[in-house]
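[Solved] Which block belongs to which protein?

Original post:
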Amino acid sequence: MNLLTRFDRWEPFEELTTLKNRMDRMLSRFTEEGEEPLLTARWAPVSDIFETGDAFIVKAELPGIEEKDITVEIEGNVLTLQGERKLETETEEKGYRRMERSYGKFLRSFTLPQNVKPEKITAAFVNGILEVTVPKKEESKPRKISVELKKKLVSAA
């Protein structure tokens, strides 16, 4: 086997998967009952965060989860989404050939800027998408400044 052939067969994603599996096994030793949620979280939902003139919007994909299994909390300036996706127990076949969807507890935290109104945060859950709206304080909203047309600028001299 020559050197070029060895490079052709290198699969970086396979190595990353192996590393992830080893890390999962190592961290699974810390997931006893009563542990902190960060250690018991099995997965984290993918999320989008964007800013409008009035608020920050967080959208998290939570398909297959019921509203009652989702908790949205704010502590200080940290917004935390957590809950659980339960494993489907009714299947016609006895075993799985491959299981790619994540089940179990999830946790996702976002650090918010200081210019928000935590008491006005709202959350809505529609079609498996959780949308959390975090309003901005009035003084932090952008304001438009009009430009006047003058004949001559004031000089600093």
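(Second protein starts here: sequence line, then its structure tokens.)
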Amino acid sequence: MGDGHDIAESLARALVATGVDILDISPASAAAPADRAAPFMALGVPVIAVGEMDRLARALEALAAGRASLIAVGRGLIADAEWPAKVQAGRLDEILVCTGCDECFGYLDRGEGVRCAVWDGPAQLIAG
């Protein structure tokens, strides 16, 4: 696979054999959410999928299709720390969605704490 590692190219089998309890597989391709994580489900341990999983439809598709056991939201939680509570409460129209601009990581790389381009009002800072 040119854009990732499949089971044969990875250390996943060896890791599971030595007792690893869970695998975090990154990223997914543009074809389908968690498509690159799906083959790792055959190893018998839970698999975490990433890749715009803050878009609820992507997360639900990955889980419903059995391509992953769990999802990681990552940058989506920087954009909206209340994402899980809003999803659970059905307040989907209130979710601040990550734009994928990666400005948050730029601030971290400079040691400045985290800011997010989608926050409203004056720049908010989470201490780094």
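Accepted answer:
You had them paired correctly. Confirming on the second one: The two ends are 36 Å apart (CA to CA).
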